[in-house]
């Protein structure tokens, strides 16, 4: 059993990377010390107990806030039924979900027939069922001072790199050159915040390198 702090849980369509377009239950965990300046989930950074509240209040949230509830894997699974979710794909995101021991949750969900995906910055070792799909969105040289570790690079099924300028491509090249990096991992470039120059750079680089483009499609259609 493992207690997780949950900032949000909702059903939507996965908007990014390999599983784009697939209905999914998102579990957004609270807490992240990485400090990306362009982070669009800054409300998940704090782990202040003052923001702990009850489950229903968190599930009813209509805007971003630091409020979270605590639950183990069995409670989360029972909430899937209570919320009448339909999706068979679960995305565990954050914040930085690899700060938590995700073995109990991922094992229970996989045992119940769900496909499970974790989205991580690669700055913490991943503790999850071996069949968990690992989406590594590596965060290099961020304010928090964390390094991208070997273990997430080894486990990555896809490496989805946020880009705005050439130095981000160079960082990715350095990560891909590390001997531990999974050579089978699919490589995606994702323009930061849909900026025009970032998008042009990502498109041109994907064409030149035969990499894939990931767009935050949920933002284009105005859903979470
Ligand atoms: S790792 Fe993710 S949640 Fe943490 S600061 Fe960076 S973008 Fe935000």
TrEMBL record:
Amino-acid positions noted as binding Mg(2+) in the UniProt annotation, renumbered to this chain: 41
Binding-site positions, substrate: 13-15, 28, 93
Catalytic activity, as annotated: 6-carboxy-5,6,7,8-tetrahydropterin + H(+) = 7-carboxy-7-carbaguanine + NH4(+)
EC number of this enzyme: 4.3.99.3
Domain annotation Radical SAM core: ranges: 19-224
Keywords of this entry: 4Fe-4S, Iron, Iron-sulfur, Lyase, Magnesium, Metal-binding, Queuosine biosynthesis, S-adenosyl-L-methionine
Coiled-coil intervals: none
Pathway note: Purine metabolism; 7-cyano-7-deazaguanine biosynthesis
Amino-acid positions noted as binding [4Fe-4S] cluster in the UniProt annotation, renumbered to this chain: 32, 36, 39
Keyword Cell membrane in annotation: no
Residues annotated for S-adenosyl-L-methionine binding in this entry: 38-40, 95, 137-139
Keyword Hydrolase: no
Cofactor: [4Fe-4S] cluster; Mg(2+); S-adenosyl-L-methionine
Textual note on the cofactor: Binds 1 [4Fe-4S] cluster. The cluster is coordinated with 3 cysteines and an exchangeable S-adenosyl-L-methionine.
UniProt-listed Gene3D superfamilies: Aldolase class I (3.20.20.70)
NCBIfam families, sorted: rSAM_QueE_Ecoli (TIGR04322)
PANTHER family assigned: 7-CARBOXY-7-DEAZAGUANINE SYNTHASE (PTHR42836:SF1)
Function: Catalyzes the complex heterocyclic radical-mediated conversion of 6-carboxy-5,6,7,8-tetrahydropterin (CPH4) to 7-carboxy-7-deazaguanine (CDG), a step common to the biosynthetic pathways of all 7-deazapurine-containing compounds.
HAMAP family the UniProt entry points to: QueE
Assembly notes: Homodimer.
Recorded family membership: Belongs to the radical SAM superfamily. 7-carboxy-7-deazaguanine synthase family.
Protein name: 7-carboxy-7-deazaguanine synthase
Organism: Lacimicrobium alkaliphilum
């Amino acid at each position: 059993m493992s207690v997780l702090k949950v900032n949000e849980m909702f059903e939507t369509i996965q908007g990014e990377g390999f599983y784009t377009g697939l209905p999914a239950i998102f579990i957004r965990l609270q807490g992240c010390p990485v400090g990306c300046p362009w982070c669009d989930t800054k409300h998940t950074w704090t782990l202040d107990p003052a923001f702990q509240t009850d489950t229903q209040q968190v599930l009813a949230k209509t805007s971003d806030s630091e409020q979270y509830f605590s639950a183990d894997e069995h409670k989360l699974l029972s909430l899937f039924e209570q919320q009448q979710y339909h999706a068979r794909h679960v995305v565990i995101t954050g914040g930085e979900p690899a700060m938590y021991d995700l073995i109990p949750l991922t094992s229970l969900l996989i045992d119940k027939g769900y496909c499970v995906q974790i989205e991580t910055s690669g700055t913490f070792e991943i503790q999850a069922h071996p069949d968990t799909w690992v989406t590594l969105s590596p965060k290099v040289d961020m304010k928090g001072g964390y390094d991208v570790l070997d273990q997430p690079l080894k486990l990555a099924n896809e490496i989805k790199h946020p880009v705005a300028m050439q130095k981000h491509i160079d960082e990715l090249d350095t990560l891909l050159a590390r001997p531990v990096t999974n050579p089978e991992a699919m490589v995606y470039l994702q323009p930061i915040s849909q900026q025009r120059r970032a998008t042009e750079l990502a498109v041109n680089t994907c064409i030149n390198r035969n990499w894939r483009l990931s767009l935050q499609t949920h933002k284009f259609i105005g859903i979470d």
